[in-house]
Amino acid sequence: VAARAARLPARRVAAAVRAAREDSPSGDDNDDELARRAEMTYADLPSVPGGSVLDCSRAFTVDIPPAIVADALPDRGVLQYVRLPAEEYNVLDSSAVERIDVGTFRVNAGTQKILMWEIEPVGTLRIVPTDNGCEQILLGAVMNDVKARRTGKESVVIRAMNASLKDLTMRNAVSAVAGASGTDGTAIRCQIDVAGTFTEGPFAAAGSQRLCAMLDWCLRSVLPWFLEQLAADYADWASGRARGKRTVNVTQVAGEILAGGKGQLPPGVAESAVERR
């Protein structure tokens, strides 16, 4: 029963979206009808008895070329980089990171359109310094309903997703470690731990096995690409070169992320053993 229920959410919502698109004219004006039909289907989804338990961790390391470390400006080693304040990382748009308290930041991913929903993911992070880097701890995450701001009509799906997100915990430990050469401070290691017990929303309906498998795939896919970006940003920062938002080829990035999910890692990136706390 649990396995069957876990397969239903994505299939039934996707089927409702396809049916609505086939029956309705194209264009942005059709979004409300698509959302209405999909959300009616979503509201009727069964939940897995007892909810879902998530416990998933992955760790990867990227080597920094020795020449980049050797030629770094004073006080610009790998350890200093991984201890940078959150708004000084340049992998994402730094304007999206807002300091709200000492060691606490709000990260806004901007408005994104997924199918017929418009969302604005926002997370609050606490940065805790460690001996060899820092830990980024998720204090809370929410998907703001952008369309509801305009129309006053709240999305059932987005509300349900937020009901799940309130029970999500995440820790990202970023550290300077020894690289393949064995020299300390010549590699960046990143371990992400995600966990939670969910009794509401789609995470609860998915079932523990399906939810853990999905998050594990996400971490395996995204972390190698993310570390590759960190290594490139460190190279610019260490040399004093201008650091700007990089031009992104969406197709290429998607291919690299999917390759990571299949175990095809970028040069210099390797999976590490997870360190249990």
Keywords:
about 280 residues, alpha+beta, Alpha-D-Glucose-1,6-Bisphosphate, Chain A, domain 4, nine-stranded antiparallel beta sheet
Question: Can you walk through the features of this model?
Answer:
The protein has a single domain, classed as START domain (Alpha-D-Glucose-1,6-Bisphosphate, Chain A, domain 4, 2-Layer Sandwich). Strands 1, 2, 3, 4, 5, 6, 7, 8 and 9 form a 9-stranded antiparallel sheet that branches. It contains 9 helices and 9 strands. It is globular. The N terminus is likely disordered. α1 runs antiparallel to α2 and α8 packs across α9. With 277 residues, it is an alpha+beta fold. The longest helix has 32 residues. It holds the Pfam family DUF1997. InterPro entries: DUF1997.
What's this, in brief?
By secondary structure, this protein is α+β, with helices and mostly antiparallel strands. The protein has helices at 2-23, 31-43, 66-70, 78-82, 146-151, 156-165, 201-206, 208-239, 250-261, and strands spanning 52-63, 97-101, 104-108, 112-114, 117-130, 133-145, 169-177, 187-198, 269-272.
CATH topology call: Alpha-D-Glucose-1,6-Bisphosphate, Chain A, domain 4
Mean model confidence by pLDDT: 81
User: Spans with pLDDT under 50 lasting ≥5 residues?
Assistant: 1-11
Largest sheet: 9 strands, antiparallel
Estimate what percentage of residues fall within beta strands. 25-35%
Q: In whole angstroms, how far apart are the ends?
A: 34 Å
Please state the CA-atom Rg, rounded to the nearest Å: 21 Å
> What's the CATH class, please?
Alpha Beta
CATH architecture: 2-Layer Sandwich
Number of domains: 1
Give the class from helix and strand content and strand pairing. Answer: alpha+beta
What general form does the structure show? Answer: globular
